Amino acid sequence: IAVATIVASLILSQGAMRIIKFNKEVINVTGSAQKQIRSDYIIWRCGFTKREVDLPNAYKKLQADLKKIQEYLLAKGVSEKEQYLSPVDTTKIYKKTKDGKETNDVEAYELAQVIEIRSNEVDKIDAVSREATELINDGIQLVSGAPQYFYTDLDKLKIEMLAKATENAKQRAESMVKSTGNKVGSIRSARMGVFQITPITSTDVSDYGENDTSSLDKKVMAVVGATFSIE
Predict the structure, then answer these.
(1) How does strand 41-52 pair with strand 184-199?
(2) Interior/surface letters 187-219, b for 16+ CB within 10 angstroms, e for the rest
């Protein structure tokens, strides 16, 4: 019985040592991966206004400008299904006294409307957004906004980038333990770090990640923290 007890104690102690070794002999590393992408979806907005003393006349002239803009867009290859029209926004302009104080008398009405273009034909809409100010020569008070550029297959891209970042983490771990004569074993744990989309020339890093919509060509970076066993 005494011998059996001693043997059992040795077996248990060896098992405990293995568990301690299993838990302690690990390496924690951070891996990253980068990739350049080109946006495949664009949103562009242009607004136009008309100011007149008479409200019906202002609306009539605004509609005339809208027709010219839509004809221009169609001529540039922008289809009707890519165009989204906002409601007309009406603002009353009140007369002011010599002291600059507003009165209750309406001086004019200013009507404004926005056309939003959404399309997968990024290069085409990008070019139109730069050329649309030509309409100013036709007497249209057009304001062209900066386009927003998006990448629509982000879910698939995230999976790809996280896999590459994890692979990079393992390569870093192998490089670190190589000089000790040990080897990197199985992965114990992994956690997703920053995933961000920035302009190609940007060096900004945010703890919460970034999703740039101002650049046609972008840089994607994924970060993964991983723990590997050491053999």
Answers:
(1) unpaired
(2) eeebeebebbbbeeeeeeeeeeeeebeebeebb
The first and second tokens of residue 4, run together, are 């059996």
- Output the six-digit token pair for 34: 């980068």
pLDDT (0 to 100) of residue 21: 47
Q: How far apart are CA 102 and CA 96, in angstroms?
A: 4
Beta-carbon contacts of 168 under 8 Å, excluding residues fewer than 6 positions away, are 31, 32, 33, 224
Per the CB < 8 A criterion, the answer to whether 193 and 203 are in contact is no
In tens, the pLDDT along 92-103 reads 989 888 887 888
Q: For 56-94, how does the pLDDT look when each residue is reduced to its tens digit (9 = 90+)?
A: 999 999 999 999 999 999 999 999 999 999 999 999 989
pLDDT tens digits, 100-152: 788 888 899 999 999 999 999 999 999 999 999 899 988 899 999 999 999 99
> For residues 203 and 219, what is the distance between their CA atoms, to the nearest angstrom?
10
Which distant-in-sequence residues (6+ apart) come within 8 Å of 133 by Cβ? 142, 144
Name residue 90's amino acid: T
E strand map for 7-127: 26-38, 41-52, 83-85, 89-96, 102-119
